[in-house]
Amino acid sequence: MKLDQMDILLKQALKPGRYVHSVNTMKEAVRLAGHYGEDVDSAAIAGLLHDCAKNLNDEQTLEYCSNYGINLSRLEQKQVFLMHGAVGAVIAREKYGVENEAVLNAIKYHTTGYGSMSMLDKIILLADFIEPGRKHSEVDNARKLAYIDINRALISAFDSTIRYVMNRKGLIHPSTIEARNNILMLISYGHTDLEFKG
Ligand SMILES: [Fe+2]
Ligand SMILES: [Fe+2]
């Protein structure tokens, strides 16, 4: 399916505000991909479709999870909205015809990050965080760093997400901690925890 067809379908599926956010994320992801020498077409598709499951309620999300063998951890059972990444990857494949695994992976993990993020994974998570429609506090620092050092920008994004969740006495997903630790290891010691183990 071509990008403009995906765009038409997505516009029908999402609330107007969420659709605008998706288009903004796509544009930011394309800019980041160009800047970091990543595939621009993949960034466009992943950016556009990253929230394609966001229109589903918890019940519908759980139904997708059980139909497609997506197992939820105890934390995820308490925070079903986090699964819009994993379910989004399913819908991107089934409804939008995306076959590129790197694109599907970026959609899957945009909500939490994870230990060994690819450049495309990083671009989508960051674009989602900094797109111009985002007005949340602390976004400025990540925005400033985004085109200077994507890893430092991501640390800033993770820090502010974790702070936000902590302030609300919320549960922090272990994949977010893992992602942050690995990127910090990379910045501080020149290798990630995973590379070190390998
Ligand atoms: Fe999302
Ligand atoms: Fe989003």
Outline the structure in words.
The chain is mostly helical and 198 residues long. The chain has a single domain, classed as Hypothetical protein af1432 (Orthogonal Bundle). Helix content is 68%, strand content 0%. The relative contact order is 0.12. One fe (ii) ion (FE2) binds next to loops.
Number of strands: 0
Whole-number mean pLDDT: 95
**Which oligomeric form is depicted?**
single chain
Question: Which CATH architecture?
Answer: Orthogonal Bundle
Low-confidence stretches: none
Largest sheet: none
One letter per element, helices H and strands E, the order comes to HHHHHHHHHHHH
Small-molecule binders: fe (ii) ion
Using the alpha-carbon principal axes, give the shape. Answer: globular
Strand content: under 5%
Organism: Ruminiclostridium hungatei (Clostridium hungatei)
Domain HD: 18-133
Protein name: bis(5'-nucleosyl)-tetraphosphatase (symmetrical)
Catalytic activity: P(1),P(4)-bis(5'-adenosyl) tetraphosphate + H2O = 2 ADP + 2 H(+)
Which characteristics define this entry?
binds fe (ii) ion; 0% strand; Hypothetical protein af1432; 198 residues; mainly alpha; globular
List the helices and strands and how they pair.
Blueprint: H1 3-13, H2 16-36, H3 40-49, H4 58-67, H5 74-78, H6 84-94, H7 101-108, H8 119-130, H9 139-146, H10 150-167, H11 174-189, H12 193-197
Helix pairs in contact: 1-3, 2-3, 2-8, 3-7, 3-8, 6-7, 7-8, 8-10, 9-10, 10-11
The chain binds fe (ii) ion (2 copies).
